[in-house]
Batch of 2 targets.
Target 1
Amino acid sequence: MAAEDSRSVEAVGELCRLALVASRLGCRVQLLDVDAGLHDLIVLAGVGDLLLDDEAEVRDLP
Amino acid sequence: MTPVTATDSALTVEQLDKHRRELTGFCYRMLGSGSEADDAVQETMVKAWNAADRFEGRSSVRTWLFRIASNVCIDMNRSPQRRARPVDLGPARTPDAAHLVDVLPEDRWVTPVADEAVLDLDGDPAQVAAARDTIRLAFISALQRLPARQRAALILCEVLDWPVRDVAELLDTSVPAINSALQRARTAMAEAPPTKAMEPLTAQQAELLSRYLAAFERYDMGALAKLLHDDVIQTMPPFAMWLQGRDDLITWYVGPGAECEGSRLLATSANGCPAFAQYRVDPEGGFKPWALQVLELDGDRIIGVHAFLDTNESFERFGLPAHLPAS
């Protein structure tokens, strides 16, 4: 894996960490427009349920 | 950002994710906090994914993940403060609201964990019962008194039944060093106050829980008192104060705790024990989360009520409703 890829993984990991903390604090969190190649990593990071495939649903968010 | 695809990795999500529950159990025993355990597992998984192309298969994926998780947990344990139960931190108090001024910092008390998050409840009943004892609040609190590497060695060898040789390799040390660490850890654990092993619930205890639910929801102090052991204790983290004795608990319920009248309870399980999610009456309608009550039983009496009041921390992790409608 290239160094740049490694940094990308770390960045996504940090994003997932923030998403977990925010959802724990009662915030409604959705991860939008995520490259399909990152879905596995997001699932592994325990926040796969925050992925939103259908952007149209964004309009429904409060 | 360069896209990272699954094909970059030599390991599949399934190969890593199937260890999540066991890893969560390990991290919870290491850290004494359900949310910190989730954080540690998340970091472990991200690190594993990041290094997956360098995984050479010289150990199993499971061993490799536990190696990463051990390091993550040991790093998270740098703080000199250790989590504990309020009963480990000071004497029982009188049932007086004045004692509520002493609030523990959020990293100071052991937080609960859902059984299903850390145990394979479909496994052999005897093994499940034994595993439940290793997530009891008293055991988790006693573990936190050990230095982190001793704690890891004890959990891996004596809870998860790993061979000493494998644990030595995982912790980058020798077999004699692990044996020495285990000896010290066992001595320290033996000094912890004894606790009664939790047997599978009997029909009588299932009935006891039904009666507790009914008595608490009716706020019938006479019925409730009959279910409590003479020396029952009640803790209420994050408050440092705790109560001991049936009379003091009842005095609390009709005094500072009187706003619990009208509550609704939902049955769940936590830390190998029966538990109830308590919802108080919401003035705006319905019921709002108030506490996660973890009950300890001995025979046909309740000997412990651990009411975790930080519902923001626990209800979401337990998958409990954020609000109950008016019934």
Target 2
Amino acid sequence: MKNTYKDHYRRGDLIMWVDLSTYCNAGCPQCHRTKLIGHTTEDWLPLVQWSLQTFVEAFPINTLHHYARWEFCGTWGDPLMNKDLFGIVQYIIDNSTARIQINTNGSIRDANWWWDFGVMGGNRLQVWFDIDGTTQDMHSLYRQKTNLDKIKENVEAYCATNAEACAMTIVFKHNQDYLWDIHDMIRGLGVKGKLIFAESNRFYHQDYHDSWNIAGELVRLEQATLNGDHPLLNDEVPIRDHKWRKKFVADGNKTNDYW
Amino acid sequence: MAKKIRCRWEQDKRLLVNPDGQAFPCCYLSNNYYQSTVYEERGTYDELPDGHKANIEHPVMAAYFECQDEYNVFKTDVNDILTSQWFTETLPNSWDSDETVHFQCKRMCEIDE
């Protein structure tokens, strides 16, 4: 029999994905919040963020047992840009047994903050860092406005705690020949969790994507030519990828969970 | 082989809440909705791409929009949202027919039975 949302809620195994912020420090050209010219925020997008108070009002303590996991990924912004994120995660940690998963570019806040965050979250906290290269140029051709050295410092500090670190690499033509180097660098930072390498699926009409940075310089991203033919692309299919339907049919009723 | 809709996010036990507190079963429905409501509030709805308009004007989403406060976590208890007519009847019943299914559900969550 099919399980519905209310069944999941009553059983306490609902996963809540909450978009806590529309702010972002980066300017990834294929992100739908990014303008192609200047890599700034799309004009229509309001800049908003939840406070700890609004979070508690929406999800009072006496309801937290309905949720098995919280996901702060950010469709319209990076959750680390939320000024109350630490408090929101602490509220969940202190008042429930739920786990928390966060996706971020990692180029926000400093190593001390990340250490404290990992210590507070412990083994119920899982952070996915977006790392697309071994050099600043390789990494930030897509992850515009982020700083790889800062990300590495933050990842290392976080990985020294009991919290879990994972990483996601979007594969383009410019980094497809360096996937093992990226893999080794990420592992060297202390990331022990899953690593996902996924070719960008946001080339809709042609095999390149043009945008222009704030200085007016052309940023051309080219589609990877691996077509899945790489050991690092084989076994981890992102559950939010459009390939899900194929995966779902192949695996019957099984879902492909991160955790 | 017969086709049917199996909601991926519901099977994954995952519910999405937009920055404005609106609860949705997935980002495929929520993203266009969020952008469309911002345009609507600013009086620039006509400037939306046709695809966005078709998304939000589909009867399934029109029914959501009509009672949107009932699906907002800032205004309604999550239990009430999940037991609401839209989540328990309007959306799942729409999957029974090609005439009623939202094209995003068909595009993203149609599987061979």
